[in-house]
Amino acid sequence: MRWPFNRFKKQPPAPSRRTIEAIYGTIVAQAREPAFYQAYGVPDSVNGRFDMVLLHLWMVLRQLRSGPDDAVAQALFDHFCSDMDANLREMGVGDLSVPKRMQAFGEAFYGRSAAYDRALVEGLEPLARALDKNIYSGGNIDSARRLAAYTADAIAALARGDCATLTTEGLRFPDLAQRE
After folding, report:
1. Who contacts 66 (Cβ-Cβ below 8 Å, separation ≥6)?
2. Which tens digits make up the pLDDT trace of 53-110?
3. Can you give the pLDDT at residue 100?
């Protein structure tokens, strides 16, 4: 039996709220880039924007979880959940409905994450099909292929830095203007 003496081990410092807000702010700003809705054909709707936040959150969490400490990843996911909760309440969703909606958000995130993880292992075309299903409702495979290429480039860009770089120097996504 292993004794839980890890409480006495020196733990890495918890990520600062400012760091998590900066990372999340970058994710949301990138997800709101007009090029996704104009050039990439992502539906400019609540669902389309939500899906773009999920896609970018998935990419960043994927990179953060590859590091030695996943406290930043957990704090980032917690911040996402808090933001979604606040947005629902701001939109006037009643207190009794918020938990159901949050559960749906969680299911959407975990379902898409699993689909994207599986597809990414298989290659760019399976990733495009997963994006087409989840973001374009199965109706725009050509745009989904472009978005899959962007996603692969973004994952590669995130992988070039280590987890400390993401939290200290900020994360960088590919410039959409240069991709056009």
Report:
1. 159, 163
2. 999 999 999 998 877 668 889 999 999 888 888 877 777 777 777 788 878 888 888 9
3. 85
State yes or no: pLDDT of 125 exceeds 70: yes
**Tokens for 132?**
């087409």
CB 131 within 8 A of CB 147: yes
Lowest mean pLDDT among 29-33, 117-121, 158-162: 158-162
**Tally of residues, the chain:** 180
Prediction pTM value: 0.86
144-155 pLDDT, tens digit per residue, is: 999 999 999 999
Question: Which tokens is 98 given?
Answer: 């918020």
SS (H, E, C) 38-80: HCCCCCCCHHHHHHHHHHHHHHHHHHHCCCCCCHHHHHHHHHH
DSSP states of the chain as a string?
----GGGGSPPPPPPPHHHHHHHHHHHHHHHT-HHHHHTS----SHHHHHHHHHHHHHHHHHHHTTSS--HHHHHHHHHHHHHHHHHHHHTT--TTTHHHHHHHHHHHHHHHHHHHHHHHHH-HHHHHHHHHHHHSTTS-HHHHHHHHHHHHHHHHHHHHS-HHHHHHT---PPPHHHH-
